[in-house]
Design goal:
Domain Arginyl tRNA synthetase N-terminal: 5-84
Domain DALR anticodon binding: 450-565
Oligomer: single chain
Distance between the termini: 35 Å
Number of strands: 13
Shape: globular
Strand content: 5-15%
GO biological process, one term: arginyl-tRNA aminoacylation
Bound molecules: arginine
GO cellular component, one term: cytoplasm
Motif ('HIGH' region): 122-132
Length: 565
């Protein structure tokens, strides 16, 4: 039973189909102040349709709508405020959570459709950047959220493992490389070689040709070039895997740019057949004048393909291989133009599914207001950042709870959770200021705050020896005021999930669990749950419900919930 949907249906009947029930549902709000009811329907948008004052419409509707789930209906200005039948709602919500547990709040509108998610996608032989961290964290949360809505997520790591830079790297390695050094510290060493190559090339331009030559060999399948490339790739992946493991992120596919090498002739052929390829400055391009976009470069004058060509091949491959309902690309907003061009080219080529492709951009990670860059030696090693966060969390635990059993395990969950939550709590388009102190705070809108609230609620249940079986069938008490605030928050979970899914916006879940944690902490400060009383077992059922939803909310963001911390 979904009470918002219930109200939407009743309103739909009362409006005799004047507004689609889906639109009605979208308009229904949760009043900020509970004195104004549990659900509110603003009548402004109906005023135009009905050519009537919105407050009159609200009045009329209030007389028409009836349901056993409503306690009363009030009109305040243009708003129709609905007070729900608290007993019915409370019992329904708590019983659902007790029986459904982690499944509570789920939707099935995804209908099992595949959603490919291009995420993380770092460039091999280069440090894993903050942008890649953001893509990993946002992509992983979106995967969990779409899954909760009935889709099947397919996480693809579109590794940057092809391009002329690998020719340069091979050339640099052959000139100055040391196998042992690379093995000991692959990314750092390969990056140093790459930087040295560029520095030397400034005085020795012949190096550029040598680099291009090696890339040509690589593309032509030369054995030495290929095995060096393979080695660089393997070593880089080993390093990336450590970060993925720290963050508990797994991929369904590591098909990166190189994977599409043998699939690009077909792209070029398709574009030729559709007469979309034109020559411009000796290169082959697709003009996008009508779309008001710059031309998309497909093939360079020397026949080399480009990033965009590989993405075209990847898009087609994904459609053919996964028959996606949606194809998502979680990539920083600097690449917005690239994705616009990509979708436009596919549209022009007549692929109807191109409008199922969505670029999900995000803002930058800043340090002291400036972009955190990985170039010119100013490397921010992500693994170091994560480890530092874990160390700080470990230190906090030592201070607050020195007797905790698994301190290292919990420090990892808290330290990593803090970084993830900090990333996800704001609308993804915002730039974020990177601050470990801020992330690890136990108060305010932080991961540790939500985790701590979960651990606290769990400890109440432990102390009381509460078991789900001992939940009373009828939990609601007419005296429940503070409790009602918690219950009405619990009721909102599924709407938050739906909003997060529809807008590819994990911050909806992050904000929701912070709100729930706040409401719960306030409740717990006011009501002595552990005190013996007739209501105790009902109250514990409520506390249990809160733990289930906080844990599931954190899980949807890719964050673990330690029982104790
Ligand atoms: N490797 C690219 C970069 O680091 C991101 C790739 C994004 N995915 C894609 N299909 N283009 O900038």
């Amino acid at each position: 039973m979904n009470f918002k949907k219930g109200l939407a249906e009743v309103l739909y009947q009362a409006l005799e189909g004047e507004l689609a029930s889906q639109n009605i549902e979208q308009l229904i709000e949760k009043p900020k102040n509970q004195d104004h009811g549990d659900l509110a329907f603003p009548c402004f948008s109906l005023a135009k349709l009905k050519r009537k004052a919105p407050n009159l419409i609200a009045q009329e509707l209030s007389e028409k709508i009836q349901s056993p789930t409503f306690e009363k209906v009030e009109v305040v200005g243009a708003y129709l405020n609905v007070f729900l039948n608290k007993k019915l709602v409370a019992e329904h919500i708590i019983n659902s959570i007790i029986t459904e547990k982690g499944k509570y709040g789920a939707h099935d509108f995804g209908q099992g459709g595949n959603v490919t998610i291009d995420m993380s996608s770092p460039n091999i032989a280069k440090p894993f950047s903050m942008g890649h961290l953001r893509s990993t964290v946002i992509g992983n949360a979106i995967a969990l959220i779409v899954e909760k809505c009935g889709y099947k997520p397919i996480k693809i790591n579109h590794l940057g493992d092809w391009g002329t830079q690998f020719g340069k790297l091979i050339s640099a390695y052959k000139r100055w490389g040391d196998e042992e050094k690379v093995k000991a510290n692959p990314i750092k060493e390969l990056l140093a070689l790459y930087i040295k190559f560029h520095a030397e090339a400034e005085t020795n331009p012949a190096l550029e040709d040598e680099g291009r030559g090696w890339f040509k060999k690589l593309e032509d399948g030369d054995q030495e070039a290929h095995s060096l490339w393979q080695w660089f790739r393997d070593e880089s992946l080993k390093e990336f895997s450590r970060i993925y493991q720290l963050m508990n992120v797994e991929f369904d596919s590591y098909a990166g740019e190189a994977f599409y090498n043998d699939k690009m002739d077909r792209v070029v052929q398709i574009l030729e057949e559709k007469q979309l390829l034109v020559e411009s400055d000796q290169a082959q391009v697709v003009e996008l004048t009508e779309e008001e976009l710059p031309p998309c470069l497909i093939k360079k004058s020397d026949g080399a393909t480009l990033y965009a060509t590989r993405d075209l091949a990847a898009a087609i491959y994904r459609k053919e291989n996964y028959d996606f309902a949606q194809s998502l690309y979680v990539v920083g907003h600097e690449q917005s133009l690239h994705f616009k061009q990509l979708i436009a080219v596919l549209n022009k080529a007549g692929f109807e599914w191109a409008d199922k492709m969505v670029h999900i951009p995000f803002g930058m990670m800043l340090k002291d207001g400036k972009k955190m860059s990985t170039r010119k030696g100013k490397v921010v090693l992500l693994e170091e950042v994560l480890n530092e966060s874990i160390t700080m969390a470990r230190y906090n635990i030592e201070e607050k709870n020195p007797n905790l059993a698994d301190k290292d395990g919990v420090a990892k969950q808290v330290g990593v959770g803090a970084v993830i939550f900090h990333d996800l709590k704001n609308n993804r388009m915002n730039d974020i200021e990177f601050s470990l102190e801020e992330m690890l705070r136990f108060e305010g809108e932080t991961g540790p705050y939500v985790q701590y609230t979960f651990a606290r609620a769990s400890s109440i249940l432990r102390k009381a020896g509460w078991k789900a079986e001992s939940a009373p069938a009828s939990v609601y008490q007419t005296t429940w005021e503070n409790e009602w605030k918690v219950i009405s928050m619990l009721m909102e979970f599924s709407s938050a999930i739906k909003r997060a899914c529809e807008n590819y916006d994990p911050s909806q879940i992050a904000k929701y669990i912070v709100d729930l944690a706040q409401v719960f902490n306030k409740y717990y400060a006011e009501v002595k749950v552990l005190e013996q009383s007739e209501e105790q077992s009902a109250r514990l059922a409520l506390v249990y419900s809160v733990t289930v939803v906080l844990k599931e909310g954190l899980r949807l963001l890719g964050i673990e919930a330690p029982e104790e911390m």
